[in-house]
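User: Hey, my collaborator sent me this sequence without any context and asked if I could get a structure. I don't really work with proteins. Can you help?
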Amino acid sequence: MKIKNIFLCAIGFYLFSCHSNNQQTTNSDSINKPTVINPTNNVPEFRKDVKADPIDQYKEKTDNPLNDWYFSVKLFETPMTFHYLIKMQFEEIRGEDTLKLPNFGYDPKPVLKKGNEKYSCIIGFMDDKNVFREYKLVHVTNGNELKITALKHYSVATYQEK
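Assistant: No problem. I've predicted the 3D structure and written it out in structure-token form, which is a compact way to encode the shape of the chain:
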């Protein structure tokens, strides 16, 4: 009989101690949960005002002696904050493409710069340290083909520390 009472008391203490440890773990877990700060929430997904004029443009006269033709690249805002319309032209060849900048948590600053080759333009953006980051290249190949090429890829990720 004494062994049975001791056994029941031991089971009772065991269940009580397991139950109280679970409560403490649950409470401490909720207190120590890490806070996730997402800087991409700082910039709205859509623009309030979309400018009709290009926000940046690059223009270079071609060597055609008979016509007043140009190689040009223009960037236009769209309703989406991180999307831009690219309008490009070489003489009478025209094309359009989209530029999708990653959301780094600050307003995007797209920039056009002259490329290293003749009739080329680098599309990029200024980072948070005001350093130019190249993204795409608009250029003329084979003497008369207008082409756009991705130079680099960028992405944003949010991590949570435990």
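In plain terms: The beta strands are 56-61, 70-77, 83-90, 93-100, 110-114, 120-126, 132-141, 145-150. You can pass these tokens on to your collaborator as they are.
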